[in-house]
Amino acid sequence: MEIVADTNEGGFVASYPDLPGCITCGETLEAVMKNAQEAKRVWLTAALEDGITLREPDAVEADMDAIIAENLPAWNKLAK
């Protein structure tokens, strides 16, 4: 997952480079993380319904999701 600050409208934008078109936003890091998990769920559900072959997730990606979730409180304090 990639998260970047939205310099035009504020907040943050999250995307999954391995899931084309899977993108979302949120006003805070916590919100964008929550929205990203939902966007990924919806994207994967639609892909399965459409018969798209999915690859196994990269272990590094799973580790990064855990690191981001663990550090959200500290990052939100820094963003204020």
Q: Give the overall pLDDT as a whole number.
A: 81
Determine Rg (CA atoms, Å): 13 Å
Order of helices and strands: EEEHH
Low-confidence runs:
none
Q: In which order are the strands of the major sheet placed?
A: 1-2-3
Which structural class should the secondary elements be placed in? alpha+beta
Helix content: 40-55%
What is the overall number of helices? 2
- DSSP strand tally: 3
Main sheet specs: 3 strands, antiparallel
Roughly how many Å apart are the termini?
A: 23 Å
Tell me the quaternary state: single chain
- Bulk shape: globular
How much strand? Answer: 15-25%
Describe this structure as you would to a colleague.
The protein has helices at about 30-50, 60-80; strands at about 1-5, 10-15, 25. By secondary structure, it is an alpha+beta fold. The protein is globular. The mean pLDDT is about 80.
Topology, pairings included?
Elements: E1 2-5, E2 12-15, E3 23-26, H1 29-49, H2 59-79
Antiparallel strand pairs: 1-2, 2-3
